[in-house]
Amino acid sequence: MDEEDHEIGRIIETPACVAEGAAWLAANDSRMAHAYQLTGALPLRRRPDGFAQLLGAIVSQQVSTAAARAVWGRLESAGLTEAPAILGADDEALRAAGLSRQKARYARALAGAGIDFDALRQRPTDAVVRELTTVTGVGVWTAEIYAMFSLGRADVFAPGDLALQEAARLLYELEARPKERELRTMAERWSPWRAVAARLLWAYYHVEKQREGIA
Asked: Which fold has domain 51-150?
């Protein structure tokens, strides 16, 4: 059990955990320290885990936040937020709830995957990502975001995220936005608090976008 816990690493459960990680980053990386001075306290951003969270991630793909929220509300009203309900619904019912043909296929794939969400809590992050990405419609970014926010893993990062890439470019004054592989390598310096580094970069990106808007 001790070895398994070591593989899982720290779990972010409270704002104090985030503050601890941010302090570590600031002490070990001068640019992170600069970003933290600008952003102030970082959000916890913990979410529940389970089928509905991943279904929500699929719903949110390539649409605005408002559109995703509207579709999710329709799915909730229709009782279509759990695996048995998705598997029992026909195309017309899923379409009426706002799912495109492609997303209905992804939702069915997730519902039929038989993922043991409780067991994922005890599995190393790389194993979580491998299992989730076997499901059609769940990519690496979605799996890493799930590990970060639904499982609370402190040392997972999502380098495929465009906002993280742009934030890294701005903060480290890079000539070009780093690609996913480059940012993944870059993020190794922020271990064991890569998930807090992601929170800090997202917050820094927001600060910079606001500054540009004021300018």
From this structure: Endonuclease III; domain 1 (1.10.340)
